[in-house]
Structures are given as C-alpha cells and as structure tokens.
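--- STAGE predict ---
source: upstream dedup step, 1 unique chain passed
mode: sequence only
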Amino acid sequence: MKYSKATNYALHTMLFLVVAASDKPVGVQQLAERQEVSPTYLSKILTKLVKAGLIESASGANGGYRLKRKKEDISFLDIIHAIEGTASLFDCTLNHPSECLIQQEMVEAERRMEDYLRKKKISELAAQITVAL
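--- STAGE serialize ---
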C-alpha cells in the first residue's frame, strides 16, 4: 500500500505546526520552503486540512495557518483521511454468489491499521523532536 505525496506533505506540515504550537499563523511560503515544495501545491493540501477542521487559516499580511484542534487530539488517521478520504484500499471486482472472503480479510487488515493510526497522535512524534525540522 502506498499513500500519495500529498499525504506525506500533509503529515510533515502538521508535524511542523504542532512543533511550532504558536497562535501566530505560519505562512504557506515558509511551510513550502521547509519541504521544498511549490506553495501552490501545498496550498491545495492546506485547503483539505482546513476543510477537515484540523487547521485554520488567517488572512492578511501576517496571515497563514495554525492548528484549530488541540494537538493532543490530532491523529495520523485524521490527517490521512483529510487527504486520502475514507474509502477502502481494496475492492473485490469479481462476482461472487456470497461475500468475498478476500475482501473480508483485506477490510480486517485495514481496520487494524486504522486503529493503530487513530491511536498514534502527531503530538507524540512532535515530543520526540529535539532539533528544528
């Protein structure tokens, strides 16, 4: 299984915002430079994070993005779902007279992975960082 680059940038952006943990918004240019990505591309990712209620934007000369939820409440799964959505990774396309046994196993594997990612908070990772990102 592979997540998109957008999810990679979203996770790193959220980690930076948690480490920054400031009421002062961080500009898209600064966030983009830290990850060596286009500000235009990152803006699309940030829009999804705003829509998911994880961050909020502030406009104006000193505008940017900051956390909307408490950092302790933001899980890896919250961020992944904001970018990737919640659809199953596996979909059996064969016609079966009954429930597909392979689909059942794949759904169970996804459930277990999501349970882990739901419990893993981005703030736990931020607490391990001793140097600037």
